[in-house]
Design a protein that fits this description.
The complex is a heterodimer. Chain A contains 16 helices and 2 strands. Chain A is mainly α. Chain A folds into 2 domains: 30 residues, no CATH class; 320 residues, Orthogonal Bundle (ABC transporter involved in vitamin B12 uptake, BtuC), CATH 1.10.3470. A two-stranded antiparallel sheet of chain A has the order 1-2. In chain A, helix 4 packs antiparallel against helix 10. By secondary structure, chain B is mainly alpha-helical. Chain B has one domain. Chain B has 11 helices and 2 strands, in the order H-H-H-H-E-E-H-H-H-H-H-H-H. A two-stranded antiparallel sheet of chain B has the order 1-2. Classes of the chains: A mainly alpha, B mainly alpha. Chain B: GO terms for molecular function: transmembrane transporter activity. Chain B: Its main location: membrane. Chain B: Keywords: Amino-acid transport, Cell membrane, Membrane, Transmembrane, Transmembrane helix, Transport.
């Protein structure tokens, strides 16, 4: 956010700002009414889901239509564990690991195919997931779904349920965002960026595209599991409908509209996921899908970096008063990461080599 | 035995519908190197056009033919106005664009014609005939026959005409094709138009069975994509064979494998694909793609 050198680049200032921001965020649940808190908690839930999708799609360039499946599995595991009286820690770990293992198995097969096969295979996850959830009714409650109110505020906290749930989302979601930010800014993030920009170059540098695709997909499904846990904590109900294809497409649209390969973009994506249908419902419930499709295409045409790039685009337009040329369009939708600056610095030198992209 | 034959014929009939959609996907994939997730949505839109025309009193055959023509034009326009800009860029972005198109087209259908099911007249009668003791519906045989004719037509178009040769040239190497004077842009439009026209046929064949809704083709799209992967992305014949295989195997599995049953038969193509991919990543009939660096 703070790009200008000087005061904001000093470490202690940044730390102080971070500390103030954290305190401000932690104070939020106390200051709003129940409806706002619930909306904020939902935004947090889906921001985590979008973040997971961003790891595999935004940063690594593998289109995934299956992210909602892992959210759903995480939610089901949480609901099952909570209704069977498991320890909450065990529930959390199981709701992360089980989707992760499924994700790993899917990725091991899907990543063998180059290019777009991951997109095609992941499409199957929600399509198969819905009837599967209905079939395994001993564990999932069938079409009725499962509900579990394990996330009521404990006696000692003196909080209302909605405040407590928002705190759960803030703490768990915050931890996931922090970990993911570190992941995509470090060694792995650079490897993801090279795999995304050119697999042949990645391979020639000793970075196995296969291994990193599998890794990214597995991380995405782990994060999806966390999102599922939070979903259950906030919504307290899950059914086969939770993991339908429509939701997965909306999740993908949210990621692109928020801004791909961007941490802040994931937050915006979560906000879009929750708020856009509410807004569209005010207009006409029948137009929700129409508006979403139109908006997604508009963003791809006009603002390939997503909403998160809006301030930058405006700033650039103001700075250079000449008509924008090809340079602006170079940024593809899944283009330059807004935050992972290190990753970008590597990428241009890579794509500068005249190479053929593997189809 | 009678049941077995019936299942196989019905499977071939279902498989034929997946095959048309899969052929449309391969057609676009060959020309532009991308997977069009909106192919099913476009087919639904075409089916709605057909339905609208029959509601206005046209005969079904005429309505289908008009819808095929309209779909060709619409498909070409989609290529020119939406996809053209993303074709030379990042393939992943282009895929997201097609997913956006799918959402938009489904949304338009839902907005114009509501999300309620609409009855769609069948091209073939539902009466059954007896073949080797199995009751086989005229519809299954008819669907299969229509697809067979379309395949022969496509084969003739691609191998026997100058237009087909030009399309193949653009698919193999757009730059060289442009240098030898081919109108690459117009040929790409024609490729998309042909794919959309194929989709219109698939839509008209599948709509009577499923009744017409904006999301009608979602499952068929999944089967078609599975057929594309299974058959190898570059092989039209392989894709059709894979689609038939999927149609037959899923029908048999639904009846004979107790756990799968009718509700989980959608998982069959993916189990099949999963197994094949582990052994042959390029698909049953596909070639290995080698990238030149």
């Amino acid at each position: 956010m703070f790009r200008s050198p000087g005061l904001f680049s000093r470490a202690w200032v940044r730390r102080a700002i971070t500390a103030i921001a954290v305190i401000a965020v932690l104070a939020v649940p106390l200051g709003f009414d129940e409806y706002t808190n619930q909306n904020l908690a939902r935004i947090g839930v889906f921001a985590v889901a979008v973040l997971g999708l961003n790891v595999v799609m935004g940063y690594t360039g593998q289109v995934s239509l299956g992210q909602i499946f892992f959210v759903g599995v995480g939610a089901y595991v949480t609901a099952y564990g909570a209704t069977h009286g498991w320890n909450i820690g065990v529930v959390l770990v199981a709701s992360i690991l089980i989707p992760g293992v499924i994700g790993l198995l899917v990725a091991l097969a899907a990543a063998r195919l180059g290019g777009l096969a991951i997109a095609m295979l992941t499409l199957a996850l929600p399509i198969v997931g819905v009837p599967l959830a209905k079939r395994l009714s001993d564990y999932t409650g069938g079409s009725q779904g499962l509900s579990s109110a394990f996330s009521s505020a404990p006696e000692w906290s003196g909080l209302y349920n909605d405040q407590w749930q928002l705190y759960v989302v803030l703490v768990v979601g915050g931890a996931v965002f922090l970990l993911t930010r570190n992941l995509v800014r470090g060694k792995y993030g650079r490897a993801f960026a090279i795999v995304k920009s050119n697999e042949a170059v990645a391979a020639s540098m000793g970075i196995s595209p296969y291994r990193y695709k599998v890794l990214a997909f597995t991380v995405a499904s782990l994060i999806g599991g966390v999102s599922g846990f939070l979903y259950m904590a906030v919504v307290q109900f899950t059914s086969p409908e939770t993991l339908s294809l429509g939701h997965s497409v909306t999740l993908l649209a949210s990621m692109v509209i928020g801004g791909s390969a961007s941490i802040v973009g994931s937050l915006l994506g979560g906000a879009y996921y929750v708020l856009a249908p509410q807004l569209a419902n005010h207009v006409d419930p029948n137009t929700t899908e129409l508006l979403q499709g139109a908006l997604l295409l508009l963003v791809l045409f006009l603002l390939p970096g997503g909403l998160v790039s809006l301030p930058r685009v405006i700033a650039r337009k103001l700075r250079r008063n000449r008509p924008t040329g090809g340079a602006d369009r170079q940024q593809s939708s899944s283009g330059a990461p807004a935050r992972g600056r290190k990753a970008v610095e590597e990428a241009p030198t890579m794509s500068g080599i005249p190479t053929g992209r593997p189809e | 035995m009678g049941q077995f034959i019936q299942l196989v014929v019905d499977g071939l009939s279902n498989g034929s519908i997946y095959a048309v959609l899969a052929l449309a996907i391969v057609l676009v994939n060959q020309a532009t190197g991308l997977i069009n997730f909106a192919q099913g949505g476009m087919a639904v839109f075409s089916a709605y056009i057909t339905w609208l025309l029959t509601e206005h009193g046209l005969s079904l055959i005429l309505a289908i033919l008009l819808s095929v023509l309209a779909s060709f034009v619409l498909g070409a326009l989609v290529e020119r106005l939406v996809m053209r800009r993303f074709e030379r860029g990042d393939p992943d972005t282009a895929v997201v664009v097609t997913i956006g198109l799918l959402t938009l087209i489904t949304g338009i259908c839902g907005w114009l014609w509501t999300y309620n099911n609409q009855q769609f007249r069948s091209l073939f009668s539902l009466t059954t005939v007896s073949i080797f003791g199995a009751a086989v519906s005229i519809r299954s045989i008819g669907t299969f026959a229509v697809i067979a004719v379309i395949m022969l037509f496509l084969q003739a178009l691609f191998l026997g005409t100058k237009f087909g040769l030009a399309l193949r040239a653009v698919a193999i190497n757009p730059k060289s094709a442009a240098l030898s004077g081919l109108p690459v842009g117009r040929l790409l439009m024609a490729g998309w138009g042909l794919a959309a026209a194929l989709g219109a046929v698939a839509g008209a064949l599948v709509a009577p069975q499923l009744t017409l809704t904006p999301g009608m083709m979602d499952t068929a799209l999944v089967y078609a994509l599975a057929a594309v992967i299974l058959g190898g992305q570059s092989s039209p014949v392989g894709v059709v064979v894979a689609a038939w295989l999927i149609g037959v195997v899923e029908n048999l599995a639904a009846v004979y494998v107790h756990f799968i049953g009718y509700d989980l038969k959608v998982a069959v193509p993916f189990i099949l694909t999963f197994v094949v991919l582990v052994v042959r990543p390029q698909g049953l009939f596909g070639r290995k793609v080698v990238a030149r660096v």
